[in-house]
Fold this sequence. Notes:
Number of helices: 7
Shape: globular
Distance between the termini: 22 Å
Helix content: 25-40%
Number of strands: 15
CATH topology of the largest domain: Rossmann fold
Number of domains: 2
Strand content: 25-35%
Amino acid sequence: MRIAICDDEIIIREDIEKKVRSILPEASIKSYASAGELLSDEDPDILLLDIQMDGMNGMEAAKRLREHSSDTVLIFITAMEEYVYEAFDVGAFHYLIKPFTDEKFKEVLLRAASDIQKRNRKRSGDSTRHIIIQDGISRISIDTADIIFAEVLNRTVTIHLTNRDVSYRGSMVELSNQLGDGFFQTHRSFLVNMKYVTSYSSAGVETPKGMVAIARGNLKHFVKTFMDYIRIEDE
């Protein structure tokens, strides 16, 4: 996996690179001090891009990148909130506003990596995936294609499958990291499989096993992610 970091401040580039290496140690990482350097090199799988830079800014660089690359997963890292809507126009995966926590950065980067892995599996024709749930001394193998949604209450996670429910002691963050692509955490207590979304509104996300709550702040990101999911599935 090729990851590019573009920021004109060396301290920030080095800090981001350190974070990336701790999360995805096997990734190939390149850093660029300007948009010109970035655009003159091969397209990365994931691009972590600042907006406010000397010379060509990050938004213009993203527009030029999209002229020849629709596959690069683009994550803006910036203190400039006013460009958030333009970010959707260039197909940004996420818009991280400084300052953000290490936990948030990790969450976004892992989802981006999972998105790429899904795309690669789809192109290779391999779409079957399982996760292992540890419930006390028991280990349960679950086909992710059978998961409709999951919910957590008092550290008890319940996974609602097409033919049964499985409950165990755990956390939603851990499950979300295991599942990765194709799933969206609509609320701190709910995680839904995009495959089973039948409709959505500000009130929640409808699935064959009932309504899943969605936090107000997650709605816009959910809609974009769901639209991207449909597009990828139709390719």
